[in-house]
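Objective 1b. Sequence-to-structure analysis of Hemerythrin-like domain-containing protein.
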Amino acid sequence: MTAITETLSGDHRRCDEIFAQVEEWISKDDWTRGEPGFAEFHEAMEHHFAMEEGVLFPAFEARTGQAMGLSETLMMIMQQHNMKEEQMLYRMADQVLAADAEAVIQQMNEV
């Protein structure tokens, strides 16, 4: 019998590995692999969320009466997402795009 923690932690690692591979491809400007890789990452994350929201959280709530609602889950996901971007991606972008930062920021502000 596999523990829920082991199952979902393993899936976290799988999603993280896909993300790391996609990040590597994109950092090398390899969009031929990066684009479908990101689609794979997106699908993996959707599957993970479906396991939690569709199965785990309802089972937990039914057994305990304690809701682990979507808003709490979304907040946790957003915080993790923001941390990854702020500690990794944005810092890499600052280095790689330093010469074009002003133009990039202007384009972002126009979106």
